[in-house]
Amino acid sequence: MCIVWEQQPKGGEQPAHLSSSSKQKPVMSIERIDRVGVVGAGTMGNGIAQVAATHGYDVVMRDIKEEFVESGFENIDDSLDRLANRDALEEGPEAIRDRIEGTTALEDLEDCDLVVEAALEDLEVKRDIFDDLEDVCEEDAVLATNTSTLSITSIAADLERPERVIGLHFMNPVPIMEGVEVVVGEKTTGDVVDLAHEVAEDLEKTTWQSDDKPGFVTNRILMPWINEGIRAYERASRRRRTSTPAWNSGRTSRWDHSRWRITSASISVCMPPRRYMRNSEIGTNLRICSSGRSRPTTSGRRPGRGFTSTTEIVRSDCQRCFTA
């Protein structure tokens, strides 16, 4: 299933960069995609690697340190075991796990037909990765980024072949959530767009398509939604009894908002995309609330205690306000 969410050109004509007849070098077809590379073994990276391997693809999962790769495999093993216990797998976890190769060498991605970057949400980091990928990968390989907010066009701006770069924004957790947002850069060709939808749907995901605007579809909705929830608490914290049921029942069919708890950890994850979007055309809607600048009290861990102020004072009542 594919849902297209993008601004159409006047007159109903297809944009030149989306035309399959554009005079560009050919890209990989889905029939020839056997090997998928994933850059980043974190939450999103290992989830993408797991899903690809579950659906029969050979996968190379790369990160900059061996300990990161090992941690990614630990998460994959744990996820596969839980799915197996629920009879949610068509084959054993060992068979799926054996299709995933871990590495710290980017050169090991040279034989990959599709590479999905899932590194830090930092524009310069992603640009450097794609610059290296262009040198390593074959000319017909498709290069995708899992960015949730950053411009696809900007990521690919310095590449010789920006037309093969596309956004494949998986939802978290990847093995569970069915959605994939296909984001089209200014120079992305129609063949690459079609292939991105086909690959995602082959992974049994539902796709929707967005043009290259800050936040795309999901974060353009989600970030103001989270921010407004925080703002509502700041302005009317005495009315918790009315806030809680509205928060917990206000869900849509496309995003399972029950997974989004307003905690210090989720705020930390959302901070980079909100800052990026704050500097864009929709900035006034994303003025970050004071509580939204909070940080976990324990570095690198999710304390599960709601917001913390800049002076490290825990606002535990905010957790009770926004979670069941």
Question: What features would you describe in this structure?
Answer:
The model is unreliable at 2-17, 19-23, 242-266, 294-301 and 307-324 (pLDDT under 50). The protein has 324 residues and is α/β, with parallel strands linked by helices. Strands 1-9-8-7-6-5-2-3-4 form a nine-stranded mixed sheet, sandwiched between helices. It has a two-stranded antiparallel sheet with strand order 10-11. The chain contains ten helices and eleven strands.
What is this structure, in a nutshell?
With 324 residues, the chain is an alpha/beta fold. Helix content is 36%, strand content 15%. It folds into two domains: 24-211, 3-Layer(aba) Sandwich (Rossmann fold); 218-248 and 260-322, no CATH class.
Please outline the helices and strands:
Elements: E1 2-5, E2 35-39, H1 43-54, E3 58-62, H2 66-85, H3 93-97, E4 100-103, E5 114-117, H4 123-136, E6 142-145, H5 152-155, E7 165-170, E8 179-184, H6 190-202, E9 206-211, H7 218-235, H8 240-249, H9 264-278, E10 307-308, E11 314-315, H10 316-322
Parallel strand pairs: 1-9, 2-3, 2-5, 3-4, 5-6, 6-7, 8-9
Antiparallel strand pairs: 7-8, 10-11
Distance N to C terminus? 32 Å
Number of strands: 11
Number of domains: 2
CATH domain class name of the largest domain: Alpha Beta
Which outline best applies?
A: globular
Q: SSE order, as H and E?
A: EEHEHHEEHEHEEHEHHHEEH
Q: Strands of the largest sheet, in order across it?
A: 1-9-8-7-6-5-2-3-4
CATH-defined superfamily of the largest domain? NAD(P)-binding Rossmann-like Domain
Counted by DSSP, the helix tally is: 10
Helix-residue proportion: 25-40%
